[in-house]
Every structure is written in C-alpha cells, then in structure tokens.
Amino acid sequence: MRRLVTAALLVVVCCPSLAACSGSDDRRSAPRPSPHPTLRLGQSADTAGAGGRGAARITPDTVVYADRTGFGAPEHGLFAVVTYQSENRTTSRVTTTAGQGGWRWKAADGRTVADGNSKVATDVAPVGFSEGGPALPPEVGHQDVAVFDIAAAERGGTLVYVDGDGTAFRWKIPASDSGVAVPALKSALD
Fold it and tell me: Which residue among 140, 161, 172, 186 has its CA within the 20 to 30 Å range from the CA of 148?
C-alpha cells in the first residue's frame, strides 16, 4: 500500500512539470537563430536528421532561374531551382527534413516560401537531379532539387535549410544562374 501511495504521489508531482516542460515541437514554425555564418553555393553544412536523429551533410551547388520548363510554367513568374547534395554521415539510415518543409527561399523583402510552394513546383523533377528524396541509406549520398515558385523581383534570395534540431542554415544565392551544373540543369528542365 505504501508503494502505491508513493507512486501515485510521484505521478501527481512530476507529470504536470514534465508536461509543462515538453511544450510543442512544431518543426515548421520559425527556425531558431543560427550561430552559423551565411554560406555560398558549394559550401556544406553538417545538419541533424529529421527528429534530431543522425547527421547529413547538405551542399547546395547550383541555381537556375526559369520562367518556363518542360514541367509547366510557374504561377508567380519564375522558378528558382536549386540542386543540392545530401550525404549521410552515419552508419544508420538518416532522413533529412527536405520532405518536411526543411527548404525555404527568403527574398530580400523578407517574404519566405517553402520548397514546392505551387502545384507545378511540386512536379518539377529534372532527370538526373532528383535521385531519391530525403531518406539516405548509411554512408550514402545523392543529389536532389528544391524548387521555389517566386516573383522575378525575388531572384538572389537566401536559401534556408532547417534541420531536424530546428537549426537554420543559410546560403546567399546569386541573382543569376550559377554553380557547377548550370548547363546540365537547364537542359533537364526543358
């Protein structure tokens, strides 16, 4: 009987404080301020996997702006198509936050949009650049794209990646087509 009363007392005392401390874990809310400097195309960031599990190195390396593609026309006037490499840095499967709203485009005026922010943007999958989504087998990497439907005035924004710990990594993106794969990506978008 004494153990039952002690256990009940622990539940009454500890559970409310645990609930108060746990709070909401909405990963799509505003990212925490980043202690990391703003990067350039081709520079890597070591990020946490979805739910804070595992580690992935993310490297955006090319941006192409297109007012039309073989997949359709943008609703807002221009696509910003960014290729990036994802590399699993662990011996366990890692899922990046790319498929969970992890990629964002922030324009100079502060307007921010998520990857795939229009119907056509979600359909853009250039052959050779969309290799498998956010899940990465152990010690494997692949290439993928983030596609943003933006206004022409929003060229040259900041690419933001929010990892599984809620940390934001930023890359300053040039206002013109740039990077290692521009010709190949343009061809794959036609």
Answer: 140
Residue 95 host element (H or E): strand 94-95
Please write the tens of the pLDDT for every residue from 92-147: 999 999 989 999 999 999 999 999 999 999 999 999 997 777 889 988 889 999 99
Q: Per-residue pLDDT for 165 more than 50?
A: yes
Instruction: Find the largest Cα–Cα distance for the chain.
Output: 76
d(CA 51, CA 81): 26
Tokens 């498998």, residue located? 132
Residue 185 is classified by DSSP as H
Nearest to 64 by CA among 84, 46, 81, 49: 81
Concatenated DSSP letters of 104-137: EEE-TTS-EEETT-SHHHHH---TTT--S-SEE-
Rounded Cα gap, residues 129 and 86, in angstroms: 12
Q: What one-character DSSP code corresponds to residue 32?
A: B
The torsion angles phi and psi of 52, rounded to 5 degrees, stand at 80, 10
Is the overall model pTM greater than 0.85, yes or no? no
